[in-house]
Structures are given as structure tokens and as C-alpha cells.
Task: inverse folding
């Protein structure tokens, strides 16, 4: 998989891909992540990529020309399955969407900034618009990092145990059940006996029931879906 991220603040995105699981995935050649500074595609000496909006109003808008140049250059080299745009009014990003995107080959992620991008970018270049929550960030960079992390960890070979991602919260519209590790007793607080019984079928049944109960209590909306 290859992920190309278009941003006006590439330095904000460098750190997430230089540590932990994401770094190992890149080093193992399981994914390529490339950051593209939108200012490199500006047509003037001031590296301008934003301008005032037509009709007046507060806030600057990312211009269509540098975005067009960047996306067109990327597409001249390879085909892309998706051009994602991170925006507060996009489709809510979910585990299901992460699963779907993890099966793609090449993805472009465009980070919104200021008041957003010229609408013509959304009309003619973007294939899917995503948000990570009902709130507004100063830019789409952190959201792009979140989406990239959620996708990359699903790629075969990224996690030490490839079945681990299958038991994450939201995979079956259920939250994950409680988990425990050693010691079995600590300050009088004990691990449920079923987990130390060695009876795997009963353990799995217990975990499923716990997942259902936790979801009913904390996120009943998931069960409606």
C-alpha cells in the first residue's frame, strides 16, 4: 500500500510515522507513506496556497491550482483507488471504513486547512470525504494521521499477531470485552476465574457476552446498526 498525504504542514505529520508500529510497517516495506508540501506547487514566489473567499467572509481558503498540480503529478505516475479529503463535514470515519480502505492499493489524503478548500477540488478530485469526529481541528493533518494509523495496522504483517485486529472494538459493531494479564491477584483484586480455567470455548463465550453487555451499556447505538 502507498499513502500520499498532501498538506501545508508536513512537519506536523513526520513524528507519527517515525515511531512504533507505523515506523516498523514502513521499514518492513508493508506500506509507503509520502508527505507532499502543498507550497511546493504554488505558482508564485511567496509560496501562496490560500486566498480570500469570493463573496466575502472570515477565513482563508486553499486554492484549487496548487492542489490540482499536486494531485495531477501524483496521478501521472500511478493510479489511485481513493482521494480522501479530511473535513469536519465529511462522513464519520469508522472501523468498517478502515477495513475497506486497508484493501486499497494507493490512497491520496488531502488535509484541509483554514476554512477548507475551494469547492471545485471537492467536486472534481475528491472521491471520499471523511471526519474523525464532530469537532473542528486547526487542520486535517492530525485526522490524516489517525486515518493512516487505523488503516496501516490492518495490513497483513504489521501486527505481531494478525488476529489481534480482528478482536478490536467495533469490528463486529461491539466494544471489546475486559482484558487482564498477570498477576492473577493484585491487592485483593482478582481476574475472573473463567479466564484462568483453560476452557477456551467457555472463555470465548464469556468474552462475547461481556462484549455485548459493555456495548449495551456504553454504546447502544452500535447494536442498532
Result:
Amino acid at each position: 500500500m502507498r499513502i500520499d498525504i498532501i498538506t501545508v504542514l508536513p512537519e506536523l505529520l513526520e513524528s507519527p510515522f517515525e515511531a512504533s508500529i507505523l515506523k516498523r510497517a514502513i521499514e518492513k516495506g508493508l506500506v509507503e507513506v509520502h508527505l507532499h508540501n502543498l507550497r511546493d506547487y504554488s505558482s508564485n514566489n511567496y509560496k501562496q496556497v490560500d486566498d480570500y473567499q469570493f463573496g466575502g467572509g472570515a477565513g482563508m481558503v486553499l486554492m484549487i491550482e496548487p492542489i490540482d498540480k499536486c494531485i495531477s503529478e501524483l496521478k501521472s505516475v500511478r493510479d489511485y483507488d481513493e482521494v480522501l479529503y479530511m473535513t469536519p463535514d465529511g462522513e464519520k470515519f469508522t472501523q468498517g471504513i478502515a477495513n475497506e480502505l486497508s484493501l486499497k492499493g494507493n490512497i491520496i489524503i488531502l488535509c484541509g486547512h483554514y476554512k477548507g478548500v475551494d469547492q471545485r477540488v471537492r467536486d472534481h478530485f475528491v472521491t471520499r470525504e471523511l471526519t474523525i469526529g464532530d469537532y473542528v481541528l486547526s487542520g486535517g493533518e492530525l485526522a490524516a494521521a489517525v486515518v493512516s494509523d487505523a488503516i496501516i495496522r490492518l495490513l497483513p504483517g504489521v501486527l505481531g499477531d494478525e488476529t489481534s485486529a480482528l478482536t478490536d472494538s467495533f469490528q463486529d459493531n461491539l466494544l471489546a470485552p475486559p482484558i487482564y494479564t498477570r498477576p492473577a491477584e493484585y491487592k485483593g483484586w482478582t481476574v475472573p476465574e473463567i479466564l484462568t480455567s483453560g476452557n477456551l470455548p467457555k472463555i470465548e463465550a464469556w468474552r462475547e457476552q461481556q462484549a455485548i453487555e459493555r456495548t449495551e451499556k456504553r454504546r447502544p447505538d452500535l447494536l442498532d446498526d
